[in-house]
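Following up on my earlier thread - several people asked me to post the actual chain instead of describing it. Fair enough. Here it is, all 298 residues.
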Amino acid sequence: MDIELISSFDDYCANVLALSKNTRLAYHTDLVELLNFLMLYDNTFASSSIYEIDGYIEHLKKLKSEESTINRKLTTFRTFYNWGIRHEIFKVNPVDEISHKANYSRLPSVLTRDEVKTLLDLEYSGFLEYRDHILFLFLYSTGARISEALSVNITDFDFDNRRILIKGKGNKQRFLFLPKAAVEEFKAYLKEREAYLLKKGKSKELAFFVGKAGNRLPFSSSHSIFDTVRKRLSWNKSFTPHTLRHSFATHLLDNGADIRFVQSLLGHASISTTQIYTHVSKARLKKVYESAHPHAKE
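Reply from S.P.:
Thanks for posting it. Predicted structure:
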């Protein structure tokens, strides 16, 4: 019964909420893991109360799960139970009384401007390393999510107006702006991409970012690309696709951009999601102050 509920909820997420494949997979995994925990104590989704859900959260804390992960799971469970209530499967939502706990002590990893320059000045050889360079430039120039970047087609570019159409979460579309220098680099990349695909017999491929075989670059390859470059640069800090998105937002705020403007560029439905970057920006300002002001050193 509960497995069937998860399957029905999967369909709802895909066909009604129009969530991305990665988000749907995360929701599915969250629910399966919760169900496995509940079954250890002979519970079901319907028989569980706030105490069972809270017990699972305490279990996750003992496993040293990050707070952001726990909050995401709570969002999954809340959405799932609300869906069940609307379909008269559940009578109450046991997650309603459990609040998300914001934690700004672990701020997103952000690159300094010098680190961004080092990254983009990194020498490359061959088409695939050139593609990686363009991927880094694209993410930092636009603030797009990695899933959004990898879904971009060459037909999504509007070079005349220096913008690109992005399909975000829930299939919501937005335009992102492109710096002049980036436009020229993207145009040059398109020529190299075309030549590469011609050799691979994939000249009809529409994906902007392509893999070794000439097909769309898969999401699973992105983290290995970032990890390889992180090691090459001997960086000890976290360097993932989201690091460039974090850096994009933080550098805009550092330069005085309005938070509503940043929210729009990032495609955040709620400004509360964007506000994490104001904490990053303030933390960076405090660090600069403490390292530069003579009284701060006393």
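Confidence is low (pLDDT under 50) at residues 102-106. That should answer part of your original question.
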